[in-house]
Amino acid sequence: MYTSYKRIEAGYPEEPLHDLTGAPIKQIFIKKGANKEQEWQYLMNASKLDYPMVCSSNAGSDSDTSVSGVVQGHAYTLLKADILNFKGQQFRLIQLRNPWGKGEFKGKWSDFDPNWNQVDPN
Known about the structure:
Number of domains: 1
Strand order of the largest sheet: 1-2-3
Number of strands: 3
Mean pLDDT: 79
Shape: globular
Oligomer: single chain
Helix content: 10-25%
CATH topology: Cathepsin B, Chain A
Order of helices and strands: HHHEEE
CATH architecture: Alpha-Beta Complex
Strand content: 15-25%
């Protein structure tokens, strides 16, 4: 169409999503000084409405993967945004799918974080 699949590789997954599905898109760039609360509410609402969502990480380091396991300059499918209540605190979580299937997020609340063993499934 007007762009190419190369845009997916370059970390701009919203354009091919629009071209392939016809879904309207809205770009949100997380910047210093941004209204994070407003951005979080937008993600929560989009998640509740089952909007197709994608995201990408900034390129910018010599390494392909950050310390947390996030691949730099890479596109992900954003599956869900939610809030977890745990030990009197609220944690904002997002669930991503890595289309490469390589690498694993290693930060707090990753798959192997021991806190998951303490969460009541109800």
